[in-house]
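Duplicate of #3305? Posting structure anyway:
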């Protein structure tokens, strides 16, 4: 029964990856390119710290979609796994996937926090929203997350087991760190919580701007950018959060000891993983 169920769910996963993954890949890549064009073509956005974070996020999202989602479609949908034939791609895929995810989540967190400061009524707090600080923070986090991804380049290898060759790591400590800290916290619940809290605060600030003496142009720009950020934050509850919850369940040995439940959880992880990529494909174009 478990074998037939596994075969049936694998066929659903393959079909979903092809017919859902391809539109997400194409639409997301085009959407992110349009975001970059909009943010770089208008001077107002080029001088705005929140728009700067969103521009960097769109750039790394393209890398995430091409390296992460495209390779997933090729592996699951067509059965071609380049990580098994190229050691370089084996290391590069996991390094790029993790690094671009962390940079993208960091950018949106910083953009949400930036909009909170930009819409604050206190001038002292508004000073924290400035393009020079944004440049410094972005350089810091780019270096940080690239250094953080170095273990992927070192520890991931093509390991030949008795069953098949796989691109993975045998380092138990790194596996624990990757599954529990990176997947569940850094790219899971932590950024969602940060964006939720500061998104609510920014939303409240925007609605109180009508009672403050704020230039009309500045007010409309802040409303527009806050709307962009909140739309992306809203998508977390349908993309990132479900994947994090199901991933947490997949680690519970009490559940995975049952072969039927284990098959169902692995299927849920694969499907929610596809929706996870929707986060990187959502177009936050000008409202």
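Output from current build:
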């Amino acid at each position: 029964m478990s074998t037939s169920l596994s075969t049936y769910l694998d066929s659903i996963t393959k079909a979903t990856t092809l017919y859902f993954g391809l539109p997400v890949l194409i639409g997301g890549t085009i959407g992110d390119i349009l975001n970059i064009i909009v943010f770089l073509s208008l001077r107002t956005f080029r001088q705005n710290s929140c728009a700067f974070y969103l521009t960097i996020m769109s750039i790394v999202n393209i890398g995430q979609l091409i390296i992460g989602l495209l390779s997933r479609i090729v592996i699951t949908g067509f059965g071609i796994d380049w990580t098994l034939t190229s050691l370089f791609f084996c290391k590069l895929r996991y390094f790029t996937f993790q690094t671009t995810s962390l940079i993208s989540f960091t950018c949106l967190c910083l953009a949400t926090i930036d909009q909170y400061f930009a819409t604050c009524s206190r001038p002292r707090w508004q000073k924290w929203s400035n393009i020079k600080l944004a440049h410094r923070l972005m350089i810091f986090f780019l270096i940080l997350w690239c250094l953080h991804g170095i273990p992927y380049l070192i520890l991931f290898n093509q390991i030949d087991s008795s069953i098949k060759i796989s691109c993975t790591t045998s380092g138990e400590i790194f596996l624990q760190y990757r599954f529990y800290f990176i997947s569940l916290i850094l790219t899971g619940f932590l950024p969602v919580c940060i964006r939720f809290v500061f998104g609510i605060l920014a939303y409240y600030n925007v609605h109180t701007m009508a009672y403050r003496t704020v230039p009309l142009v500045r007010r409309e720009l802040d409303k527009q950018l806050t709307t962009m950020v909140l739309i992306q934050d809203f998508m977390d509850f349908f993309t990132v959060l479900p994947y994090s919850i199901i991933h947490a369940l997949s680690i519970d040995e009490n559940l995975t000891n049952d072969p039927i439940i284990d098959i169902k959880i692995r299927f849920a992880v694969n499907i929610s993983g596809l929706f996870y990529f929707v986060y990187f494909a959502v177009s936050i174009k000008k409202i």
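Confirmed duplicate; merging threads. The beta strands are 157-160, 165-168. The chain has a mean pLDDT of 84.
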